[in-house]
Amino acid sequence: MSVLDWVNRINGWVWGFEMMLVFLAVGLYLSFRTGFIQFTRFGVILRETLGAIRERTMGGGGEISPFQATMIALGATLGSGNIVGVTSAILIGGPGAIFWMWVAALVGMATKFAEATLAVHYRQQFADGSVSGGPMYYIARGLGLPWLGALFAVFAAVAAFGIGNVVQVSALSGALSNNLGVPPAWTGLFAALVVAFVLAGGVRRIARFAQALVPLMIVLYLLVATAALVVNAQNLGAAFLSIFQSAFNLQAGFGGAVGVAMIEMIRAGVGRGIFSNEAGLGSAAIAHAQAQVDHPVRQGFWGVVEVFLDTIVINTFTALVVLSAGAWMTGGLAFDVLMGSFGGLGPARALMPLVLSLFVFTTLISWAFYGEESAAFLFGEGIRWPYRLAFAVLAFVGGLGSFGALVKVSDTMNGLMAVPNLIALVLLAGVVAKLTRGFFSGEPWTPPK
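Above: the chain sequence. Below: its structure as tokens.
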């Protein structure tokens, strides 16, 4: 059996149906331990986050504001997969896959809440005032298992090269080449230069980059998607209905094949939700650990908002664009639908390539930071510049074509990240519950030594 055969076998396990059920089970368990905080405290969460973006940005360490940390995390989760991946989920599992994507997001909010909370609680403060955190730290410090934290770091550092780099630049290069005639080499070169410039400024420049581009990206995408929905407004009600009919009636899937298996529908929907918002994978916790907050639970609230914006808002808009246009019945992608919805309106059509470019560049930068922090956990500060250089070179190479073997390996590493992270979340659920109770009862937070 070849190496790629082993990779494919592992991928079948880490992204298989049974593993999807584990993600859901952990999310439900964390929901229970936190009193279903994503529902019972949703009003508080919105007030403490989107309603107070400029407040409570100091205290307890950290180098950037809670909002900036969340924008870095969103920059990673909002990628080309929010356009192409949602379409793929519908092609595989039918419209009902979107229902299960919502289910994954609702329980994933509790998972991401726990990840962000633990990331702040167990982060490492250094003498120069900088901090590092994420699953590798709450595994090593919270569970006392540095070898398991190192295993997570290995998976994350390698996954960043594929899912956060080559996959993104390759998708952008293909879209710009096919729709605007931009040479792939130019796309790759520009991506490499942007990566090199932003990473050179460290986490604060990354934070400013994300703070400026991610909100703009979200607004532009919603404008473009809304315009596409207006064009097909007469089909919007039927699109919504098809999601629920397919979820419970096993409506025929792509190509008219009868009886889409429930297992495939759940796997496609839950898998897309997890792959999109990364709840359970642990990657976003690396960004949330950088936030200047006076209590870990405050950043946990931002974790809930992150999943809400990524999956409940962005992915739902994408799904409705595809379903209302009937594109999934013909194998069309959301990008093509969005481009075609404007007809001959040149300025409006130009927005979609811009939005896709923003998706890709924010994902590139955020995943580069994740990979760099993971590599630094393993090898120390000296690895940062070599890692940055390697990431920039791969961004250029990624624009020239698809690298199937690297992508498959990175998918494997991405999925394997969940194993040590989910173990830690279950074992540290009591810590999350205690911190949550303490926050709402007004107890001061004391970081562990």
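The radius of gyration is 21 Å.
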